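Title: Comparing notes on inverse folding

I've been comparing how different people in this forum approach sequence design from structure. To keep things fair, I'm posting one structure and asking everyone to reply with a full sequence. Here's the target:
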């Protein structure tokens, strides 16, 4: 007699995309979508952008408190020591085809870092902390080196006298950045460092839940971040701005997209219902940088796009929208934008991985089977 298909219980009701489902507890960041707020360890994101810097914010995320002067000095020296890329790693980076997407290059190199670490297989919070320092310190070096190799230039060695953000730009462009450039990148790194249980962080925690190591978890996260519906949105936002070309073209361009029911990149957010606080915190920094650099046309286009979106859809922009022209002015090509996102979010991934290890349970949701039941096997010769 055929088996009767089980009806799903209320406890196992299908929720597509796990929307509204609480799958983990965290003390790293509080994403308050209804009120448009983002807190790191209780600190409003705007206050941290105004008063702090990426290194101190990373310490806050990892250790749960703001550091003393001595603690911050030690932290900075430990992080700086991880900047150099080994000769073996650089040789592998040089082997990658120049047409490789930068996120694919970063994913490959992240996995390689685990292959080159003799302690990669050891899984515990202390070892994960060491590995988090390593990847956070070396990611900018990998990104900048691949950018320069792709352009036929020699990679620039890290400058240990510079801050994390300033050194990143120095390795990218070969010249020390202005204070406005340093501040803009530092603000971006702070704003994107953590954001609750987003897709890439969830991927990192799922991988960690199997007792796999931090390199594997971050490699999973980098692969997840590369998607258009997650980290790649800033690349597409800038490509849209470049395609518009001039401020006077913006209105017709956006109206055409909306009339064709197509997505306008850089607008809307899965969580934030009123405003993205990261976009608000970044707006003035973006303006200051672009004005100082004499590159106001991109912001003018952005302002026109935003005006049309608010008039027609009443949808505010998200952090990807204003970060796109900033990263472009700083010297990053659009297809490198998501790698810069990764260089920021790796701080949050490290914190979540350690948090998962401290109270681990294998993450194993159910699936609802919707295929056929009670099929009968027919030998190959008898199939029609």
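Reply #1:
Here's my take.
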């Amino acid at each position: 007699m055929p088996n009767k298909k089980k009806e799903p219980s209320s406890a196992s009701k299908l929720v597509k995309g796990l929307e509204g489902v609480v799958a983990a507890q965290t003390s790293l960041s509080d994403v308050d979508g209804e009120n448009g707020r983002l807190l790191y360890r209780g600190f409003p994101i705007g206050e941290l952008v105004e008063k702090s810097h990426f290194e101190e914010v990373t310490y806050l995320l990892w250790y749960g408190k703001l550091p003393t002067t001595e603690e911050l000095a030690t932290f900075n020296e430990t992080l700086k020591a991880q900047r150099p890329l080994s000769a073996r790693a650089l040789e592998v980076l040089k082997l990658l085809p120049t047409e490789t997407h930068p996120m694919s290059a970063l994913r490959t190199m992240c996995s390689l870092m685990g292959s080159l670490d003799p302690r990669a297989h050891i899984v515990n919070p202390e070892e994960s902390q060491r590995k988090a320092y390593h990847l956070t310190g070396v990611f900018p070096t990998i990104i900048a080196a691949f950018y320069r190799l792709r352009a036929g230039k020699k990679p620039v060695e890290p400058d240990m006298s510079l801050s994390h953000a300033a050194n990143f730009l120095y390795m990218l462009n070969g010249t020390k950045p202005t204070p406005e450039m340093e501040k803009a990148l530092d603000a971006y790194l702070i704003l994107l460092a953590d954001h609750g249980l987003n897709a890439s962080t969830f991927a990192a925690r799922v991988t960690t839940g199997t007792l796999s190591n931090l390199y594997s978890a971050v490699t999973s996260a980098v692969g997840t971040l590369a998607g258009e519906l997650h980290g790649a949105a800033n690349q597409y936002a800038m490509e849209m701005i470049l395609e518009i070309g001039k401020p006077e073209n913006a209105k017709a361009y956006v109206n055409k997209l909306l009339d064709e029911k197509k997505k306008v990149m850089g607008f809307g957010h899965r969580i934030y219902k009123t405003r993205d606080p990261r976009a608000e915190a970044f707006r003035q920094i973006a303006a200051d940088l672009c004005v100082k650099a004499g590159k106001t046309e991109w912001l003018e286009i952005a302002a026109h796009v935003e005006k049309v979106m608010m008039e027609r859809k009443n949808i505010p922009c998200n952090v990807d929208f204003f970060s796109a022209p900033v990263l472009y002015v700083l010297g990053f090509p659009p297809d490198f934008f998501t790698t810069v996102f990764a260089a920021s979010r790796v701080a949050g991934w490290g914190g979540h991985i350690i948090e998962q290890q401290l109270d681990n349970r294998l993450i194993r949701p159910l699936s609802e089977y919707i295929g056929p039941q009670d099929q009968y096997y027919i030998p190959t010769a008898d199939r029609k």
